[in-house]
Amino acid sequence: MAGPWGVEILAVVLVVAIAARGWLGRSVTSPRAQEWVTVFVAIVVQAMPFVVLGTLLSAAIATLVPERFFARALPKRPALAVPLAGAAGLALPGCECASVPVAGALMRRGVTPAAALAFLLSAPAINPVVLAATAVAFPGRPQMVVGRLVASLATSVAMGWLWLRLGRDDWLRAPRRTAVTGNRAVAYLGAVRQDAAEAAGFLVIGAAAAATLNVLVPPRWLHLLAAHPVISVVALAGLAVLLSICSEADAFVAASLAQFSLTARLAFLVVGPMVDLKLFAMQAGTFGRGFATRFAPATFVVGVALAVAVGSLLW
Amino acid sequence: MTASPWRLRAAATAALAAVAVLLALPTPRTAAPAAPAGPLTLTQAWPAARTVNLAATMPDGSRFFPSAVLDPGHLVGTVSTADGNHTDLVELAVADPTHPRILQGYDTAAGTSIDAVTAAGGRIYWMTSTPDDLGRPHTSLYRAEAAGGQPRDLTDDTGRPDYYGTRYDLQVADGRVYWIATRNVDPPTSELRSIAVDGGPVSVRPLDSAYALTAWPWLTSTPPLGQPLVQLNAVTGERRTIAPKPGEQLSCSPTWCRGTTSNATSTVITMRRLDGGGEVRVNTDGEGSATMDVAVLDRFELLAAPLGGPTPTSEGGQRATTSEKLTVYDLKTRRRVAVAVATAEGVHSPWLWWSTGDNETLTWHLLDLTTLK
Amino acid sequence: MVRRGAAQSVVLLLVGGTLLKIALAGTYVRYVKVGLRGYLVAAGAVLVAVALASLVHTLWTAGSRRAGHDHDVDDGHGHSHRGFDPSWLLVAPALALLLIAPPALGSYAAARGGTALAAGADSDYPPLPDGDPVRISVLDYADRAVFGKGHTLGRRAVTLSGFVMAGDHGHRYLARMVITCCAADARPVKVGLAGDLPPDAAPDAWLEVTGTYTAQTDTDPVNGQPIPYLAVTSARSIPAPAQPYES
């Protein structure tokens, strides 16, 4: 699609869209189709400011921060760098959409993949905005905030260590390191453009998938699933994957799923920011499909297990 | 890969122009969801329509029935006990329907009845008839201030009042209260009676034939099937005769006539102006006139079609009470608008009301026809 | 690579421009929270600026004889030149926003979702604000009615606005979607209208209803949560409000 004719094709597509606008406007009339389009564009619109913030940061890391900075800042031993990077997630208030390009940029700048992945998982789950939202969504239940922080941090660190032990670099389409030549501003501009366009492009795939499930899965089913203690945990974790709600909002959704146990809802909160459809699409785009198909299921299992463990201690 | 720069520039310019056009296009109006099947409904036809809703059942189980509307917040009507033995004429605030102001109470069992109620200029007027020892009805005209105070007996000199079931039966105009009374039974003739709103002697004006009151100053005859209709101007004495079509029953307001033609299987209701213009059939098969009033506000014909079988109740059950599909025909735009499925309805221009629900959930809905714009 | 860069720039310009347009025209409230406007404007402006600067640079270097490798930052990211470029997909939401402009979620979505009360919240509610009738949100009414058992509502007349949703057995509800973040997390809040009211309002019609608290409730078939009722005394149609969601 993006061959030598890229701009020409794009111009034709846009002109055709203008010509067919009347038909397009009339084509979406069934309430279900309208709901799909509304949810689809809502996810994209909601995520765009965070994607832009994330790409501004990631491009800065890629082009403006001195190459050796992160290698020096983090402990030499990867096993120690992992928990530190995981804890660093407390500092970046952003959606999960922002953390994928940032993690990619960290790898390009020489941070060990295990530490970058720990950061990738923890940043959207435990940043201050998300924890505050959780506290608001569960008034009178501070255990939920604690549970979310502990289980999410534990999952991200566990996944980092797991990567150190089992991960193979050839699964990861390791972004090549570049020596930036020429004008730094031009390099930064190019990096922002490319990261923003690609991260947002993968976001579109995830948004489409999430909108489809949002519209197709009857909420009534959830009610049936909630009755069973084990199934309810897996079901809510799976729902988090499918719904792809941004991490600032998922606590309110969890609060509304009142028929489910607190442990099931904790699993929803732990898994959601780490594994979901749009994240999967973005990870596959940034790090390669071979990586995403291994990393995401493993994260899911570890996340559910640790959420249940933490939940059983708290309740 | 190295395409010529001018071609790249041309393509980029075209793409940029397309982006500019896309961004400059007006935001499309949201495509409405597929319209639900069925006739036009009230809020679709008139989004500004104002309805007032009121629970009909009082805490003690007695029921409210509207008679007239003072203003959108205050109604006049009757409250009857569950056993039907006692009725109060009340003024009631919509915001606080369980504390009505009782204007007059009477024993239904003794044969007393309230026959006509109207409201005008912040006052409420009504006729109450009570049988004497020999069972002959004696009718009195009363007046009460909407603001409060004791009702006043304006006169007992009411004659033998005739009621036709329209809001004009008891009519206030030019500082007087008017009503029609029977003067002679055979041949039938009427008399127009009136009294100043503050009381005084009753004026009695004999009429040459039987008339009913319609919008002041007009009186209208109520001819039998196929006979012409006569209207008389009570102020100028002007008289006009409207001829029916063959087999047609006529009833007319000062502006519109309703012609009803029935055969064994169907009834056709047509509306036309007094001069015969603007003729249109307004009903569908099985639909009849919902009120005696012709062309309310010179614009609306109210039609009702009985529904076969039980209708759903708010409890999800079924009820056996008959209900009707109430439709407004708008003579101005010539369209039919479904209003409600109602168990009862009434008109006191410019208000139309109807009830829905059953015992505990019985509710009155009052629609201000002047808001149908 | 120059050409891919140009196409990406045009796409980002389209997306950035779209974000600016929906944020400034106000239609963004159909999709996300009202408070996101500033962020959308900022994101849109950044994208437009990046796209324009990048496009100017691309076209300028393409015109110069030096067109080639030294400005090709993209190479440095190590992506395959021939690979699928996902940025094209961004055309879809941009065109959907510009040409379809889908409406805010309405009765179809509300009927599919279980009523969402602030479950388990403290039943300690502040007194209603002044006003007769007092205007409160559907969510506030539902919470006070269900968890506050109507104590703070008493016999006060309240005015709610929302859209009509038809339930089973001819029940009619006044519903409002509540969002935290965006329409993807929207949950309905439903209040039953006692007395079959308004009699004819079609689903999705916006109504302003005034009434008083009643102890009547029923159960949402979707999630089993209670739905409180309002004894409606008057109702009128209103145009869809500027802010379709409560939060």
TrEMBL record, chain A:
Pfam families: ArsP_1. It is a multi-pass membrane protein. It is found in: Cell membrane. It comes from the Bacteria. Its main location: membrane. Coiled coil: none annotated. The chain crosses the membrane at residues 6-24, 36-65, 114-138, 145-164, 199-217, 224-245, 251-275, 295-314. Keywords: Cell membrane, Membrane, Transmembrane, Transmembrane helix. Belongs to the UPF0718 family. This is Permease. It comes from Planosporangium thailandense.
UniProtKB/TrEMBL annotation, chain B:
It comes from the Bacteria. This is WD40 repeat protein. It comes from Planosporangium thailandense. Residues 1-31 form the signal peptide. The keyword Signal applies. Keywords: Signal. The lineage of its organism: Bacteria, Bacillati, Actinomycetota, Actinomycetes, Micromonosporales.
